[in-house]
Design brief:
By secondary structure, the chain is of the alpha/beta class. Helix 8 packs across helix 13 and helix 9 packs across helix 10. The chain is built from 13 helices and 8 strands. Strands 3-2-1-4-5-6-7-8 form an 8-stranded mixed sheet, with helices on both faces. The protein has 2 domains: 157 residues, 3-Layer(aba) Sandwich (Rossmann fold); 92 residues, ProC C-terminal domain-like fold (Orthogonal Bundle). Helices cover 57% and strands 14% of the residues.
Length: 274
């Protein structure tokens, strides 16, 4: 990726993406990160060797790609304060802020911005994330490739052509790590009741999830077939799965994901009106 990349915001997600970019071959000298004061930037600069800046406008001046990595609640003030610089430079802008739609961010930046919205998830912090991306009409194919390469530095990328589908992405991957953490928590509690030490139960549950995910990722079979392959007629797995089906686990998951998507839509309205 032969670009000058500026990160507006230097939090955990920005740091993870920057680290992934450097591991993929991007020179630290081509990356700039900003924050309100130098103390917030010191550890990032020391750890990764990137440029740092407290002035967003100065950081945007030479950038080909600008990544908006600040909290949604302050996005408006940040964007409006550097809108003139963005209009002059015309970079690709990538927002990783949840809940703010492309039109709103584009308006705050002065309009006609080449803008990509990205919904990453927390496993991006360990390099195995999943990100959903949406591009507005001003984004070129070359810029789509830039956005793909940038987010592939911390995991897989899936594009959606309808911005509203990012709410579904939030439900299936953005918020979903917490679903699996809940599953680990519940399995550990149940295993302890069955007599296992908590630490043993936790290690077994997490490793089993890792193994199942790896099998699903590497297999050409769909999850339903992989599930069936583990189930012997009249066996222990069949009994456990039947209990989950009787308890309407599928409905619980579907309802939870719908609630997640509904909340994402509501947050978008709240944030754009603020």
């Amino acid at each position: 990726m032969a670009s000058k990349i500026t990160f507006i915001g230097a939090g955990n997600m920005a740091g993870a993406i920057i680290g992934g970019l450097i591991e993929s071959g991007v020179a630290p000298s081509d990356i700039t990160a900003t924050a309100p004061n130098e103390s917030e930037l010191a550890s990032l600069k020391q750890r990764l060797g990137v440029n740092t800046q407290t002035d967003n406008n100065a950081a945007v001046k030479d950038a080909n790609v600008v990544v908006l990595a600040v909290k949604p609640q302050i996005m408006r003030s940040v964007c409006e304060a550097m809108s003139t610089s963005v209009q002059q430079q015309s970079p690709l802008v990538i927002s990783i802020a949840a809940g703010l739609d492309a039109d709103t961010i584009d308006q705050w930046l002065g309009g006609k911005t080449a803008l990509v919205r990205c919904m990453p998830n927390t496993p991006s912090l360990v390099g195995i994330g999943a990100s959903g991306l949406y591009a507005n009409g001003a984004v070129s194919e070359a810029q789509r490739t830039q956005a793909t390469q940038l987010m592939e530095a911390v995991g897989i990328v899936e594009w959606v052509e309808d911005e509203h589908l990012l709410d579904a992405v939030t439900a299936v991957s953005g918020s979903a790590p917490a679903y699996f953490f809940l599953m680990f928590e519940a399995m550990e509690e149940a295993a302890v009741k069955l007599g296992l030490p908590a630490a043993t139960a936790r290690r077994l549950a997490i490793q089993t999830a890792l193994g199942a995910a790896t099998m699903a990722q590497q297999s050409d079979k769909d999850p339903a077939t992989l599930k069936q392959n583990v189930m012997s007629p009249g066996g222990t797995t069949e009994r456990a799965i039947q209990h989950m089906e009787d308890a309407q686990l599928r409905t619980t998951i579907a309802d939870a994901m719908q609630a997640c998507a509904d909340r994402a839509q509501a947050m978008a309205k709240e944030l754009s009106a603020s």
